Amino acid sequence: MTTKLNSMRLLERHHIPYLVCTYTYDPDDPPDAAEVARRIGHTPQEVFKTLVVTAGGASRPLLIMLAADRQLDLKRAAAAIGQKRLELMPRHETERLTGLKVGGIGALALSAKPWPSYLDRGAEGLTQIFVNAGQRGVMLGLAVADLQRVLNATWIDAAI
Prior knowledge:
Layout: H1 6-13, E1 19-22, H2 33-40, E2 47-54, E3 62-67, H3 74-80, E4 87-88, H4 91-98, E5 117-120, E6 128-132, E7 138-143, H5 144-151, E8 154-156
Parallel strand pairs: 2-6, 3-5, 5-8
Antiparallel strand pairs: 1-7, 2-3, 2-4, 6-7
């Protein structure tokens, strides 16, 4: 069992059941989300990555969650949330602002930050998905409805 993370404490405060899945990785070469899915024994459609984007200027970051086997369509996502344009936040800036390493970024771990969360509609037909717990090597499986509720995430069409 891994150390209790803030994301786990959040779920427990809300009485949300979850499953912890861990995997090993090389710190110098962390796996992408599709490889994480393979390592924890689930399909890429069930494993969701969290991407940090910005609408530019002084806007606060936004979190967009989508399946490991999908790519973010920035134009589609921008239109879905009423922005003219979105940009992926650069890696160094993402790590500085989140306090998390890329490959270990999870919306549950960032719930204390006032950043809007969006969940790609690809999750709507699923019962359970796996998201990063906020630390490389640790994924949490939970009901899609619980994730959406605890994060107050908005459903959008963001992936291609």
